[in-house]
Design goal:
The complex is a heterodimer of chains A (549) and B (184). Chain A is of the alpha+beta class. In chain A, 34% of the residues lie in helices and 27% in strands. Chain A is built from 16 helices and 24 strands. The longest helix of chain A has 24 residues. Chain B has 184 residues and is mostly helical. The chains are: A alpha+beta (549), B mainly alpha (184). Chains A and B meet through helix 1, helix 3 and helix 4 of A and helix 2, helix 3, helix 7 and helix 9 of B.
Chain lengths: 549, 184
């Protein structure tokens, strides 16, 4: 190694980044060259000085304290009363609303006197308000009592305090794990378990994210609680400077708000249900990472998508079936009719457009093997008032012809809804409830043996077949093509599992099948505890896997 | 989200005032280190650092060269530190503790020019130095954070060392003063 090469490598050498041979060469040169040795010593000396900075400043954390002071300074002239701060506050209750201002002032003063909250006991609401003056980024974890993983939310707001970007993750829904990103212009939904990805535009998410932001703010929480207290709906108890307990009078519920006394930020809300005088924790919301900037990449899912995800585009194409002069029921039934007619006609572009805008190639991939010969019956549509957006399930019967000529009746119940808000409000789509796997259900030569199984026996036989990697047997409980990619993934995931326990089956809601609690240990060592959904309302009358893995 | 100092300063001036926290986050450690060299007492250093940032925020509109934010911030911090020492001296003139603080502050002068020298670096070099030494990242972690090849990071470090040494050597003969090109 000559001097030039040595100088070029000196930093890498000091940083320990050279491989063994290069390092030896560098050392050898340093031993023989005084000039390079002096350079090396100078760099090492400087590096030592710099390295000392790390531990000396490791604990320094000035951001929140500085920003609080910055906000205090900014709002100094108006900071004389709680209310002036509230009205200046970006979450304001209506700027310039002088009349309401007076009402709120009186409301809070009255409520505080009713509550007997002296100023010190109110743990410095002014500081709390100031602390919340400018939340731009928020990360929330929502732990449901029986869920294995929390739901998570990341929200970014603009300078006016309006939610402008969000990402949320629901690990357990009836659709499986769901990841969603939202901006007013574009929403992306990734149904991870179903391997579907949808882009659309919706206004529905904004108010929800807004309420999440507002729940994290003590001054709004306090205002609401004090109003509820005044109306006689709730008892508010400020137990410590950092704990507020709200007990509802007309409902068996209670909430505990925990506030970090150092930062005046709400750190946690615990939601309890009171059953037989016992407080049962229902869920806990943790507010973390206040104002920790969220990477832009978090607000788009595109870079996270695996290649085999099926894409539906509701942003750039006209989807669904127009309602025209039809009633909602008629539109729902007509949508289903057109969908299955498109399947009969093998018109996969149309199938895709009604199937939430799924692109033609994916619609063909999904439904290409389904041989619908005839629509036997459709309807009547059953309204679904529990859905967050109105819609119907439309029970129908279709005649299927299998490759070997066997004919079966496919009972399907598509979910039909009008399009999303501002995008396609007058066009109806099928959003679920159509499982092409069901069309693969055939009557087995030894079908009688399987027909006799109880839900529990079927679940046990299914897991046992997975444990023993008897895939032909597995396919009897989970009809799919043995050549499917999905089948390969299933083999990889479930092959060689160990059954820990199978519980008593139970029914829930209107689901026509059963839920069988199970606990399995996958070959990766991961223990999975959940409910296997099985149903036997199929042409073969045997219990088949319908979800819950 | 990693913008340059200039971009953050401009965003703050345009009404995105909460972006100031990102500048605080970026410079809190070197600023603390700089003030620790002058004041030594931990609580005082923290107060002075807070005060410096707040003054900087309130005077942002007066900053003529937004790209020189850090250097300008050190100028403010230098004055805050002087004020604190003066005020301590007045309040506790007969207190041994103060004398000891003053003595320590005087002794510490050989070290704090390092932060000033860092402030004088072009932003690309300063960024790597801050991440490597004040944020405690390894070279590999700096590579990941900045999405740069390892060779570029080591070359940047190498150049940054050279510039720092040059700057420190230039300061050795001069009186230790903070950059006062722009007063808030």
């Amino acid at each position: 190694m000559n001097c030039a090469e040595c100088r070029e490598n000196l930093v890498a050498c000091v940083e320990g980044l050279l491989d063994r041979e290069e390092s030896l060469q560098c050392q050898a040169h340093l031993e023989t060259c005084a000039a390079c040795r002096a350079e090396h010593a100078a760099i090492t000396r400087l590096q030592r000085q710099l390295v000392a900075r790390g531990p000396a400043t490791a604990e320094v954390s000035l951001v929140e304290s500085v920003m609080r002071r910055v906000h205090q300074e900014q709002f100094k002239p108006e900071r004389e009363t709680i209310m002036s701060t509230i009205f200046k506050h970006r979450w304001g209750f209506g700027l310039g609303a002088v009349a309401s201002a007076a009402v709120i002032i009186i409301g809070i003063v009255v409520a505080m006197s009713v509550l007997n909250i002296s100023a010190p006991k109110a743990f410095g609401i002014e500081q709390v308000i100031t602390a919340y003056n400018n939340i731009r980024f928020l990360h929330v974890k929502d732990f449901r009592a029986k869920a294995q993983e929390p739901a998570e939310f990341w929200i970014q707001s603009n300078d006016q305090g309006l939610a402008e970007k969000a990402r949320y993750y629901f690990p357990e829904t009836e659709d499986g794990a769901k990841l969603i990103t939202w901006t007013p212009e574009r929403t992306e939904l990734w149904f991870k378990s179903k391997r579907r990805f949808v882009t659309l535009q919706t206004k529905r998410i904004a108010p929800w994210m807004q309420s999440m932001l507002e729940q994290s703010q003590p001054q709004l929480v306090m205002k609401k609680l004090l109003e509820d207290q005044k109306a006689g709906n709730v008892d508010v108890d400020i137990q410590k400077p950092s704990i507020i307990v709200a007990t509802h009078k007309s409902e068996p519920r209670k909430e505990i708000y925990r506030i970090d006394p150092k930062t005046d930020l709400i750190t946690r809300i615990e939601f309890y249900r009171i059953e037989d005088k016992q407080e049962v924790l229902q869920s806990t919301m943790e507010f973390c990472d206040y104002n920790v900037p969220i990477n832009e990449k978090m607000f788009s899912l595109k870079q996270d998508l695996p290649k085999d995800v099926r894409v539906a585009d509701q942003l750039n194409q006209l989807i669904g079936v127009p309602q025209g002069k039809m009633t909602d029921e008629q539109a729902a039934a007509e949508t289903v009719r057109q969908f299955f007619q498109a399947l009969i006609d093998k018109d996969y572009k149309k199938v895709g457009l009604i199937w939430c805008g799924e692109l033609e190639e994916y619609a063909k991939e999904e439904f290409g093997a389904v041989n619908v010969a005839r629509i036997a019956s459709i309807g009547p549509p059953v309204p679904q008032p529990d859905w967050d957006k109105h819609g119907f399930k439309v029970p129908c019967e279709l005649e299927i012809i299998h490759l070997d000529g066997q004919k079966t009746v496919w009972k399907s119940s598509p979910y039909v809804r009008p399009g999303d808000d501002e995008m396609h409000p007058d066009r109806w789509n099928i959003t679920g409830g159509v499982n092409p796997g069901e069309t693969k259900i055939k009557i087995l030569p030894d079908n009688a043996k399987y027909e006799k199984m109880t839900p529990r026996q079927a679940a046990e036989a299914f897991f046992k077949a997975c444990a023993e990697k008897k895939w032909d047997e597995v396919l009897k409980f989970w009809p799919m093509s043995g050549a499917d990619e999905q089948f390969e993934r299933m083999k990889e995931y479930l092959g060689g599992l160990e059954i820990v326990s199978i519980g008593e089956p139970f029914k829930k809601g209107e689901y026509p099948g059963w839920f069988v609690p199970y606990e399995i240990r996958l070959k990766s060592g991961v223990v999975k505890k959940w409910n296997l959904a099985v149903r036997n309302d199929n042409p073969a009358n045997r219990y088949l896997f319908d979800g819950g893995l | 989200m990693d913008l340059t100092d200039k971009e953050y300063v401009e965003r703050c001036r345009d009404g995105h005032q909460d972006d100031f926290r990102l500048l605080v986050d970026r410079y809190q450690k070197p600023l603390f280190s700089f003030l620790a060299g002058r004041l030594r007492d931990g609580r005082q250093v923290e107060e002075a650092a807070q005060e410096s940032f707040v003054r900087a925020f309130l005077s942002l509109k007066k900053l003529r060269k937004p790209e020189s934010f850090y250097s300008w911030l050190l100028g403010i911090a230098g004055r805050v530190a002087k004020e604190q020492l003066r005020s301590l001296k007045h309040r506790q003139q007969d207190c041994e503790v103060t004398e000891s603080i003053m003595a320590n502050a005087a002794d510490s002068r050989e070290d704090y020019p390092l932060e000033e020298a860092i402030a004088a670096l072009p932003e690309t070099y300063r960024q790597v130095i801050l991440l490597r030494y004040y944020e405690g990242l390894s070279c590999q972690e700096v590579v990941t954070r900045l999405d740069l090849p390892l060779g570029t990071v080591t070359k940047t470090l190498s150049r940054a060392y050279a510039l720092l040494r040059q700057e420190l050597a230039a300061r050795e003969s001069a009186e230790p003063t903070v950059n006062q090109t722009e007063l808030p």
